[in-house]
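<amino_acid_chain>
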Amino acid sequence: MASPLPGATGPAEPVAPASGALPGSPAYLIAVLVVTAVACGVGAWLGAWWLPFLAGVTVAVLAASRARTGRRVPRGGVLAALVGAAGGWLIVLWVLALDGQPVGATSRAIAALAGLPPYAGVTVAVAALLAVLQVLSGAWLARAVLPRRKPAPDEPQAAGGPRTLAPRTPGLRAREIPGREYGSGVTAGRRYTPT
């Protein structure tokens, strides 16, 4: 196999993803989707409306635990959980409608009380959107709370390197502000204003 660059010798090396994450394997994504759909569907049937939030937390904790141990994190778990949670809730609504319960009439009444158009589909779509928002908020909260693994000294830094404070901009002069302390744009009694 010839090298894609002229003058280079040997076969071309495959390029690893820049983020260090692998695309999610189909088995992992299907497992997340099915487990989330079943859990959220059973939860919706039993009235546990908060289970999509726990599904989002669980997917983010799983990804963070893999990252802390140095293993690569497959991508797409949150997306699979989003689809599974919305699908679990929608399947339960569909089963209730097939059972002869007045899901459409209830949806129209809820839509009227919420100020939405009086269509059952709008309320069903809002219910699916609520499941999606719960998964997203749970995943966001877990990712924000759980610590990330610090890279080893020999590992390459992320693009741009470590974050540093920007140097002071030349052309700013200090203006005295009596009685003001450090914070919110004021440093040791001085506010920097453009010259």
